[in-house]
Specification:
mainly alpha
């Protein structure tokens, strides 16, 4: 496990009451979620690259 795995924000465990949020806050919330999605995509790409490199090593 890397240090990157330790700073995971677990957003889906936080109950969200959208009714109490202002429009501006909802826009900020979307921006934060979008940032998390992009961060997650980068982690996935990095892990896939490592896995592909390992697969290539063991297939040789």
């Amino acid at each position: 496990m890397t240090s990157d795995d330790d700073d995971i924000t677990v957003l889906w465990h936080m109950p969200v009451n959208f009714d109490s949020m202002s429009i501006a806050y909802l826009h900020d919330y979307i921006a934060a979620l979008t940032d998390e999605i992009e961060k997650t995509k980068k982690v996935i790409a990095k892990k896939e690259a490592a896995q592909n490199a390992a697969d290539g090593f063991f297939k040789s």
